[in-house]
Fold this sequence. Notes:
The protein is of the alpha/beta class.
Amino acid sequence: xxxxxxxxxxxxxxxxxxxxxxxxxxxxxxxxxxxxxxxxxxxxxxxxxxxxxxxxxxxxxxxxxxxxxxxxxxxxxxxxxxxxxxxxxxxxxxxxxxxxxxxxxxxxxxxxxxxxxxxxxxxxxxxxxxxxxxxxxxxxxxxxxxxxxxxxxxxxxxxxxxxxxxxxxxxxxxxxxxxxxxxxxxxxxxxxxxxxxxxxxxxxxxxxxxxxxxxxxxxxxxxxxxxxxxxxxxxxxxxxxxxxxxxxxxxxxxxxxxxxxxxxxxxxxxxxxxxxxxxxxxxxxxxxxxxxxxxxxxxxxxxxxxxxxxxxxxxxxxxxxxxxxxxxxxxxxxxxxxxxxxxxxxxxxxxxxxxxxxxxxxxxxxxxxxxxxxxxxxxxxxxxxxxxxxxxxxxxxxxxxxxxxxxxxxxxxxxxxxxxxxxxxxxxxxxxxxxx
Length: 436
């Protein structure tokens, strides 16, 4: 008994001594399902890296953005790894707030990252964040209602076809809306959809000299088409509907088509959650024959702030969490359908994933159709597909979103909304020193 106690004492002392030498890193992340799953699987990392301890700060999306932005801007040093989006990466990298990821390891295979996703996370050819999962947007539609309307959805539809199909599928007497689209105000809500849509109409937020473009005919065509389509074929109260509201409507069988995030595919095709799970088809986001589709590009990614004192340990963790090995780990525990999507070409070449996710090919094609470095038909001075990667966009995007949501609700005309958007954007660009 005494020997046993002594052995335990020696082990405890050894463990304490080891713990004293272990390096502790703090990871700030968003409280979505994929990130919560990652935390549960970190034993795999700590077994391979027993000298690194992980501390988690898990926050709701808006709170996360606020905390990490404040910390990095003030060089607070609270976090060693941050979960950030495609919007922040180019802005922060140019401010020298992020470390380039150039020590991810020999077996990491950076070239396997889908080029469109890597492009949105790189500045001057250097990767500044590693994607945890990525998405674009596409058309989800009811195959049975399309057939009933006597139409066949092309793999690459035009906006004119979407309008024609929506008109035929709308059946208000039976609670079916031809199309469901985002109307809720916000730079990441209705403006994510409308900015991506405007690219396919030839519109842009700013010209090469940062002059706002809401007074140009391309924006008038975009917003008028959207408002008219939603009034004729959209759900009641559409100006209050964002991703979650439209997801619920589609799952309940109340939408003929829904154009939104590719990650929604697993939800609408889940028989436990969706009444129409066995009736869903997928197509690329629409275009107007101008060479750009109305789809966006986004990735939740892991980045390392320049202020960290633990860069090597932080980069080891980032490498693990965004590796091919991690995808295989999730597949072994949760099945291939639950592997974080949209980041690696090898996942989409994997027959097991293709079998588990019937929407895989269309997701990859949608991601590849987006180009954050050339997002528009005409030249622009910014990067970003459904956003403009400048600090002012968060506030300005939400202001414009409120104006366009009011036009959808019938509280103002399309012309008035565009005039006010032009004035707001001109004021923001003047104040920011972009234009005189």
